[in-house]
Amino acid sequence: MEEKEETTKKATKKSFSELERYQKIGIILLMVVISGATGWIWEFLLAEFEGGFQHFYLTGGNILPWMNIYAYGALLILAVCYRFRKSPLKVFLTGALVTGTLELISGWLVYTIGNGTRYWNYYENGMVGAPSAASFAQLASSPLVSVPCS
Q1: Residue 99 neighbours by CB under 8 Å, 6+ apart
Q2: Which terminal Cβ of the chain has fewer Cβ within 10 Å, N or C?
Q3: Are 96 and 138 in contact (CB under 8 A)?
Q4: Lowest mean pLDDT among 16-25, 60-69, 89-98, 104-113
């Protein structure tokens, strides 16, 4: 009985780098699903508040409650910011830079390929806004800095 409890305690204290490959893949896939769904909820609520709750707004362009850019952003943040996880300030600043760049490139591609279509425009000033980059950076910082570092 004691051996089983000791094994359980050891398993909960593993850092991400010590996990098995299938466990890492599972965590990353779960993060992608949660990020895509959370992004859809965020965008849906923003559209509803801006529209005064008078119309149902289906955001994201998908049938499912999912937004691809949030899922891809989560993967990009994990790939770029993971090595800085011991420094919350570095994660925050790098997250702001990464998400701002992703938003700019995505907005430019949609504008170019979609013949001038803009899915977002911050105060008629452009495709990237400082408040959005800061909020995405905060969202990036939260899970990464809470990951156990060994």
Answers
A1: 73, 76, 77, 132, 133, 136, 137, 140
A2: N
A3: no
A4: 60-69
